[in-house]
Amino acid sequence: xxxxxxxxENVYLLILLLIFIGITLTPYIIDSGFLFLPEEAAExxxxxxxxxxxxxxxxxxxxxxxxxxxxxxxxxxDKSNLESRLEEMFKYIGxxxxxxxxxxxxxxxxxxxxxxxxxxxxxxxxxxxKVLSIVPANWVVLRVVDLTNQQTLTEYSAAxxxxxxxxxxxxxxxxxxxxxxPAGQDIFCSEQDNLKIKSFCVIDxxxxxxxxxxxxxxxxxxxxxxxxxxxxxxxx
Length: 236
Prior knowledge:
Blueprint: H1 2-31, H2 39-108, H3 117-134, E1 139-146, E2 151-159, H4 173-177, E3 185-189, E4 197-204, H5 210-235
Antiparallel strand pairs: 1-2, 1-4, 3-4
Helix pairs in contact: 1-2, 2-3, 3-5
């Protein structure tokens, strides 16, 4: 586009030069008798032709300038969109880094396996706090269910702020096992199929990314594993 614009600009300047040369040589051309028109008519015709040529070149120049203005506006819009996308990407990367750090701490901050109910309660609170620190949910319920009789083996709930309401009575174990979440709730369960228990992480329905869903499944699997270890240590 810049080469074409420079070419048109050079053509315009060349025609302007020819116009000035023509204006300078017009009296000599008329005096030489080369033209078949009277002097006044020849001068008027030359001036009109030169004016028309200059006018059309001015229109062509303005048209190209308008195109360049539109192109600059489009480039400015594209630049703004690109900056907005980059900003969103950096925000996403930052949030992802926070989630990765939380997942690392989830494994590294548990220094020992639970040996007592108090130890296991601490782990439940720890996992629930991790959920609320990553997922924009108002509340979370962690529950371990016996699949043979659908009884609750252990449970812990946490809410974000004093205004959040936990509807424990609406969390039916049969619905959890069959993954039938009530309206306004999301269920994430452990994925092991060779145990007689199943752990669940239930939150209120909210915008959850793919990475956050993966994190909630890891929470459920971690809870199930820790409960198996807890019961094994107590039986021993």
